[in-house]
């Protein structure tokens, strides 16, 4: 579990009938229309929320989970690896749970990756999101080879220039290239002030719910005292049990 101070969170917070016409004659009876088929795989459905977060699955699911994630948090990478099959590919795909992924920014590296994961088709967000977390140990290892003088550039001057420096230092440009994101396109996304404003809104969401560590979870509007898949899974099981009991 990665924890940030309230002052740090606040600072980061400074940084979307048909009418039937009568004919006079009784219309011929038609067979009852079949119900519209349900989405086969809700995990492929992505909705952008008002603050720019990504909601995966059925927006009307009975159970709603928000995950607050930091891309430089090793616990977040572990959570994604451990939970992806049962949660996203399981409960979310079946339409039982709607999962919203919201950024909790702890440093400018988080910010840079957050801007790049929103770069491209929203339906492919999960691919980009999971890829950065799955390879976290590889690109984070480069931190040991980047000198202090270079790292100072991440915290000085124009924010977009700082993110471009980070993308170059960690070779994120090469990482996003297989997704059809050229160097120029990546820079365009990094320079997207509207996307940056959405991330600022997400930090306000973080503060509003009181999340100060990663990963953190909100289940149906309640911030959980759980920071891993074991804890979230237990809360989800209890929620589903209560729903089944209520339907009897």
From TrEMBL:
Residues 1-28 form the signal peptide. SUPFAM superfamilies: Thioredoxin-like. It comes from the Bacteria. This is Thioredoxin domain-containing protein. Residues 51-236 form the Thioredoxin-like fold domain. The keyword Signal applies. Keywords: Signal.
